[in-house]
User: Fold this.
Amino acid sequence: MLSIKGKANELIDKYGTNCPFKIAKMMGIIITYENLGNTLGYFSKNFRVPIIHINEKAS
Assistant:
C-alpha cells in the first residue's frame, strides 16, 4: 500500500506537474470556489462527478 507521499509522487510522475489544480483538471475533477464559512474545503461526488469545494475566502 502506498503512503500519501508515495501516491502524491506517483501522480506527479504520471501528469508531469506538481500543481494540484492542473492534476485535478487532468483527472476530470471539478474545482469550485464557494463561501463555506469556517470550512476551508471538502471533496464530494455528485452523480459520480468528483468535485473539490474550496472556500472563496481562504488565502
Notes: The two ends are 33 Å apart (CA to CA). The first helix runs from residue 4 to 15.
